[in-house]
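Run log, item B.
One chain of 284 residues. Sequence copied directly from the ordering sheet:
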Amino acid sequence: MTSTGLPLSGKGAYVSGGGSGIGLACARALLAGGASVTIVGRTEAKLTGAVELLRAEAPSGAEVRYVAADVSDEDAVAASVAAASEPEDGLHLVVAAAGMGGLAPVIATPLIEWQRILDTNLTGTFLVFKHAGAALARSGGGAMCAISSIAGLRQHRMGAAYSVSKAGVDMLVRTTADELGRVGVRVNSVCPGLVDTELSGPLFSVEDVHEHYLDQMPVRRSGTVDDVAAAVRYLCGPEAGWVTGVSLPVDGGHHLRAGPDWDPLGRLLYGDDVVDRGTITDPG
């Protein structure tokens, strides 16, 4: 199979969090479109395994590489963007998919955990947009897409740090889209609902939590990483050439109803006193 004639042929793509889950699915979708892809993540073993998988699927002429980097480290992000921009044609497509979860009541959230989640989810996206946005401008334009969450659109009890980080991502998307549109760079995000990944395992393991999720979805099923990747592929591709500043829910319609009920998980982790009475001896 040759990449000639594919819609993303000749494009260079950068995917943070590309070693697994939604990030890996996004890398596969961009690669299938003919783009050459650089995946970025903290764990080299995951990245090498992902590269092996991607290279087996790559159309002729599309390259796959990886760079190990922590998105909360600005020097590492800058270096990874520079490496992804090295091929002759430069960088054109960027997916900021690196992220982490967290579940704790506000009164029981240690400051270090709050900072860790925001450093990865929000600051990490900011650093990717900062350095990759400049690279895209130098390449003559392109598209960036962040992986946000329904948690940025609907409150998640027990998930303040995560929800705030994702709401911040969506505002960052709108601001960056407004600033960079003049140089031909489009910026969007997708907001997945409940998707079956390594990170979401606990949400599937407690039946009451899983059922509450499904009850809030007009299309009553959990999502797949490919559902999300298809939306990212659209937003990054030429079909979305007049779309920017959008945060697109990919959630079976969950955003139309109520946020999920994480109370059963909160009780397991923190006890009834914290969840029901807001009492805690040591918030950490």
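Observations after the first pass:
- Residues 12-200+224-259 form a domain with the Rossmann fold fold (CATH 3.40.50.720).
- The chain has one domain: 12-200+224-259.
Flagged for discussion on Thursday.
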